[in-house]
Amino acid sequence: MCEYCREKEGHISGKAVNTFEWRETAGYKPQSCTYLEMFILKGKTDRKAGLMINNGDGARYIDINYCPICGRKLNK
Question: Residue 30: left (phi > 0), alpha (psi -120 to 50), or beta?
Fold first, then answer.
């Protein structure tokens, strides 16, 4: 368990990740996205944990099974 996926009282709500080195990939150039912050979240009743990425255009949320920082399994 790391500071980004720490679990407390049945839910995951860790520290925000707000420093990334964005790399260019097919169809994406770093200057085309304004990054603000990323959170790993899981409520008490959620079946899966999620990665919430908040950028200048709004937030995006995707289901994840493992912490992208430490690799810990998040869904039991």
Answer: alpha
